[in-house]
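Quick log. Single chain, no ligands specified.
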Amino acid sequence: MSSQTRRVIAFLNRVPWLLPLLSFAAGWIGFVMVQRGESLARLMALLALLGWLWLLFEPLVRRGLERRKPRMGSVVVNFVSQSLQQELLFFSLPLLIGATQRDAGQIAFTVVVAVAALLCTIDPLYERWVATRAARRLLFHAYCSWIAALVVLPMVLLLPLERALPISLIAVSVWLIVTLPLSLYSLRHRGTKVAWVAGVIFVPLLLWEMRAQVPAAGLAVTEGLITQALDGLTPGAAVRRLSRDELAQGVIAFAAIRAPAGLAQEVIFEWRHEDELERIVAEIRGGKADGFRTYSRKLIFPENPAGLWTVDIVTPQEQLLKRLQFFVEG
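-> predicted structure:
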């Protein structure tokens, strides 16, 4: 190992909080700038994407370096991988926080990402639970790669969220299959190996089934309300309670949604009342500082409309962006 590499590693070991802090700050800066459509946010996301590519090719790099210089290969690759995992998770975390709604599934998802980010910064825990076994290390790589891809693919490649999620899951699943021999070699018991193979197959499917619980990172509703008036794309006063006579004028669910510049994204207004569900699709385009303005107008109501109405603004894969409600008096 070169003296310069040793000095860099020694310095970061003395200040282990520095890289996570800088990455977390970069994530918040990226979150603010991507809402404004500035290209620097896309550059920051591109750097995160390069870190994602490193994690995908890390096993090959590790094997090549360890063949030449076993000690250097293990130390350097572990250090680079842990640093990049910190960078990816702490960069992604603010964008996930900014997109998380008051939904138990989304809150739980973001908390798990925060716990994984903290795990990266606590060396004793990281060394004990992640770095010691190839299987755990590769699984943690896969998780960090998936989280990073969810956040940066819409920002860098301008992929709609309903495409970014399956692409990221497919890429990580292929990577887990390719690295499966390394994982199985590090596991001792046959039962554990069988469980690991089953996990590689079924966990991505489970994550796909839970896709509605993933915060829609990169999208943010800056204004959302129920109204009965619309002047151009300027909403009237917000309403919370309506009589049956007022309901005859129709109801409008209005939203202004920020998105990365250049991104075209479908959103769906889901009108719910008891067992009734109506879905109305709209399309937004990113890059507007105050958000792309869109709305859904409902004119036809059931014979008995009394009670609570909910309008969920979601992505095509049911990720909640905003929940609006109003009450119709009986």
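Strands lie at 220-227, 230-231, 234-235, 241-242, 251-258, 264-273, 276-285, 292-298, 307-314, 320-328.
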